[in-house]
Automatic annotation (TrEMBL):
Keywords: Lyase, Polyamine biosynthesis, Pyridoxal phosphate. This is ornithine decarboxylase. Residues 37-374 form the Orn/DAP/Arg decarboxylase 2 C-terminal domain. One of its GO terms (biological process) is putrescine biosynthetic process from arginine, via ornithine. InterPro entries: Ala_racemase/Decarboxylase_C, De-COase2_C, De-COase2_N, De-COase2_pyr-phos_BS, Orn/DAP/Arg_de-COase, Orn_de-COase, PLP-binding_barrel. Pfam families: Orn_Arg_deC_N, Orn_DAP_Arg_deC. GO terms for cellular component: cytoplasm.
Amino acid sequence: MKDTHLNERIHVLDNESNVMTVIKDIAMSGLQEEPFYVLDIGDIVRKHQIWKEKLPRVEPYYAVKCNDNLIVIEVLAALGIGFDCASKGEINKVLSVGVDSSRIIFANPAKPASHIRHAAAMRVETMTVDNENELHKIKKLFPTAKIVLRIRCDAEVAQCPLGMKFGCDPLDEAPALLHLARVLGLNVVGISFHVGSGCQDPPVYYRAIRHSKILFDKAIDLGFKPYLLDIGGGYPGNKGTSIDKMADTINQALDEYFNTDAVHVIAEPGRFYVASAFTLATCIHSKRTVRGDDSSSGAIAHNMYYINDGVYGSFNCLLYDHQHVTPLPLKDGCGKLIPSSIWGPTCDGLDQVVENILLYEMELGDWVLFENMGAYTLPVASPFNGFPVPKVHVVADESIWLLLKDVLPLTEDHFVIGNTPTNLRLGLDIGGNDIDPWMDADQQMNLAPPEILADAPSTPSPFIFDYVEVDPLN
């Protein structure tokens, strides 16, 4: 394979390696201190296979806002997936990997004027609308746009409800908007809806598709020729979740209301494709032990663990996406389970990752993993207080490499054979170039040469500091 200087490469694993062995190899090298992700692109490929099997009529348009990692976009583009973009920045990122503009829907119902102009310049013609002002704006800035009217049909239970911000009422507002679009001479090509991110109410899709059919008929009566039905997002993606019930409801409704090849059905899955593909590894850098009162003989009442990522970084999902995370210690524990909490690295008291959980005793330098961290984490993460956003290491097994290595925009240059090369451990690219701007020059100068690292012990270097014991909290 050609050795290029791409900042990130996809490491092709051997038959004895997997995500967990890669995490252990990096974490236990004794050289890694910052948090990091391991992205398994095979997980994304398997999700796409599930989607095609369960929803054969529905073409996925990946919601870029969920996770705009460039490798993710390239892998999805190689799989032939379309893209749901919400801004000119997302449009540019998708176009930069060679995706045709016809494979993009500008699915933000409230668009700045400059973004509409940019969409017109880039020939991204299909866009959603849910109000009168947006129709007038598009008439002025992009009159040849293909308009998809977004209606509101909320799930009774959703991780992130969206109806309070977007979507017109399907019974009153939507017909009026169709009439206005006709008066303005605009081209309405379809209907869309979004039941809410992380939907837990499968029957809502049936109701929304029924409303869409009624509006299709109204549009036809007004002289439009609608052909696009966008059923939005809401599909779960964590390990152990399933879209089976949603798929059954959607397929039934499509058979009943849109049983024709003349209607192109798309969806906007985000977390479904990427949530379980990302695993986050964090390290305990500090620890505070709270002792009980005298009556309990000074026994440990609570352990407070401070890790190197928090709510201003990857765990912003706790605040903005209403997620619940489960810590998984990398080392097996023993002894008594102790009430514990996990905190992020910043100086803000809000920076709490897990409020109360029973954990075995852990020490400084121990690693804690968090699965299902691919959705609405990295795009929102910030370097607040000077703590870096975790780096992403990308892996795939040999079968995935053989499937994707010659499918554009991916090429063989994207892949490198080797589970965790020395340079990967050090935060360098395969060519030896520094891709970690947070590593200072003195630290780089002190890194051991590759021949020494090859025989590095499998346990972390001992810490020269200890944790602090405190009296009971008042």
